[in-house]
Amino acid sequence: MTAAEIEAKAKEIKRMVIRTVTGAKGGHVGTSLSEVDILATLYFGVLNLDPAHPDLVDRDRFILSKGHGSEGLYCSLAAKGFFPREVLGTYLRHDCPLTIHPTRHVPGVEMNTGALGHGFSNAVGVALSARLRKRGYRAFVLTGDGELQEGSNWEAAMSAAHFELGNLTVIVDNNGLQLSDRVDRTMRIEPLDEKFRSFGFDVHKVDGHSVPELLGILSALDYGGKKPHAIIARTTKGKGVSFMEGVPEWHHRVPTPEEGERALKELEL
Questions:
Q1: Does the predicted TM-score (pTM) go above 0.85?
Q2: Which of 35, 71, 166, 207 minimizes the number of CB atoms within 10 Å of its CB?
Q3: 49, 91, 56: which is closest to 74 by C-alpha?
């Protein structure tokens, strides 16, 4: 897809997120809206995947380490064709595979996530496995910035550089907010670019809501080289909905039906 087509797809996915969370009366709408432009760029412009054959050996692997952003992932997978869009209407129902955090019961989900700090380490293992097996697939992982307060991420970064995993890309959803406050007031993690660079990463800072910028960077990386890649994507929590943007409360607050309708109208502009 072109950048313009991906932008249109991202807006569609954001509307799907609003409907899914509002209908289920549960979820994490703010963090899902934060990540959608990144996910749309990956699924419709970067990742080598076939929804009709989700278990192909040489498929690229994507891991959503910030598992509380499951609605953004589920809606992206449905938009890509991994399962019918109607299934989104069963989100959080009893015995439905679409749980609050993603699991491998859902087509297209590579790893159960939700316990923060684990996805990055697993992505390192995936990338290392590809190298050892002499396969061409790549590993991509999306982390939250608050999640990087977990020390296991930095052990993963050290390992990725040590094993020269150029086929690994970590993308940081750098929206500056976590559960109930700002990241820098909870535990400072900046400067992230300097930290990743000191660990031996190829580092890029981008606008996480600019599809052309994301697509340009992700298409130009040297995946066959020796340096793992870190994309620090500056984002806004609740992106696209004026009353949600940058408000910590929308980490876990669920829109009322009236707020859901208002959000949908804003996302149609």
A1: yes
A2: 207
A3: 91
